[in-house]
Amino acid sequence: MLPFSFRACLLGGGTLAAALVGTGANAQITTTATTTPQTAAGTTVTNEATVSYDVGGTTQTVSSNVASFVVDKKVNLAVAEVGGAPTQTAVNATAQVTTFTVTNLSNAVQDFRLDPGQQNVSIPLLGTDNFDVTNMRAFVDSNNNGMYDAGVDRVSFVDELAPDATVTVFVVADIPNTPGAETAIVSLNAIAATGGTGGSLGADLVASPLLAADSPTTVETVFADVGGTLDAARNGQARAFDAYHISTAVVSVNKTATVIDDPVNLLLNPHPIPGATVEYCIRVTNAGPGTAGNVRIGDAVPANTSFVPGSIVVGPSALVTGCVGLGGTQEDDNDTGTDETDTYGGSFDGTTVRAVLPPVLPATSLSMAFRVKLN
Fold first, then answer.
1. Which of 19, 30, 54, 353 is deepest in the core (most CB within 10 A)?
2. Greatest alpha-carbon span in the chain
């Protein structure tokens, strides 16, 4: 699995009112802040005090010196999963998309480096990671339509995101054909980078030393993100999670014909001669990862044969070729064979043998067997 660290909020962040603005690679979603806008980094704040006093009945005033300082850069961000998790997919699917948002909670324009990842973990609501996706990458929603457009959404980093603005990011990956695979937990990690140069990704931000005294004339960098599980606080990063869940089942069917007896050799090396009994076995195997339900079998009795009443058996597949010795429910041999049905849905309507199997779990198989006489 691919290493990465966790963010405290597994699936997403807060809710922000949004309106789409801008076009092209730098397009973004602006948000309506719910609090007073933050003072921009680099702003000079000045203040001068005035004192009045009386001397001999005359009022005098005096002003202080001007005190000033430069507002430092407060770096914060939020990453949220969009659309609900997990994302349903299928084996061998390519360019499968999970959607996230990145919000700049800083008081300055920021770039953000995007780092999609995966790890073998269990997360509530998502499941347990048990296969690796391939060809994972991240792209910004350049045309602001909320949908991944291959060839259009090509920018792999967030460029010049304004304070309190949000951008949509897609994590795109391919799904392998792995037997038993079901869930791949993925994440988007955003790392604050230096803004100010449109069209290129700035270097990762480095916080000013915590133990150094503030310089009132210098714009220093203060990380303010809260962090979370396996994600250190105040590291200028944030992460959210989604998962790919394979909801399909790879089902295969194998049919065999076994001669059970014949009127000459009886049970000893029987041959398919007129009067011989032949058993057909239809075996349904599920390679997973999902459970195959409502599995229906239909098999027309072939020409030159006659259905043997009471011979339908439905149950777990035998470990030998054919279904001889198959455990399950079998018909009453006294049945006329014109319209018989067992508790597993096995039936014969005069021409076709049918069955509705119980759910076929991943990595298991179920079978239906029936016999005919060779005319």
1. 353
2. 143
